[in-house]
Design brief:
Layout: E1 2-7, E2 10-13, E3 18-26, E4 33-39, E5 46-51, E6 58-60, E7 68-73, E8 78-83, E9 92-99, E10 112-113, E11 117-122
Parallel strand pairs: 2-11
Antiparallel strand pairs: 1-3, 3-8, 4-5, 4-9, 5-6, 7-8, 9-10, 9-11
Length: 123
């Protein structure tokens, strides 16, 4: 079992920045590829970004490329999502997830999920 806890969400104006964290406990953190997903009101959950076990490989949704940066610190059992140049359309609940199949963009390839953290971007 892996427990994931997101933090760092909040209310920010358009153009601002936030840094999300995902703290993991349980099994060895470095065994797992990690990902960020989000669900906006009235929309389906969507992939935001993913990172490999070592952190060397990353993947981003087109909508966040160049604005968001994913990273991880295996010594601290923590993953991060630095979000810059935020837009109102980034408003959503953000979830972190972990999986054993390597870097993945599909939600069904992840085993464990956090409870989510709300990000609200005002115009």
């Amino acid at each position: 079992q892996v427990q994931l806890t997101e933090s760092g969400g909040g209310l920010v104006q358009a153009g601002g920045s936030l840094r999300l964290s995902c703290a993991a406990s349980g099994r060895t953190f470095s065994w797992y590829a990690m990902g960020w997903f989000r669900r906006a009101p009235g929309k389906e959950r969507e992939f935001v970004s993913g990172i490999s076990r070592s952190g060397q490989n990353t993947e981003y949704a087109d909508s966040v490329k160049g604005r968001f940066t994913i990273s991880r610190d295996n010594a601290k059992n923590t993953m991060y999502l630095q979000m810059n140049s935020l837009k109102p359309e980034d408003t959503a609940v953000y979830y972190c997830a972990s999986g054993l199949r390597g870097l993945a963009v599909r939600a069904d390839e992840y085993l464990y999920w956090g409870q989510g953290t709300q990000v609200t971007v005002s115009s």
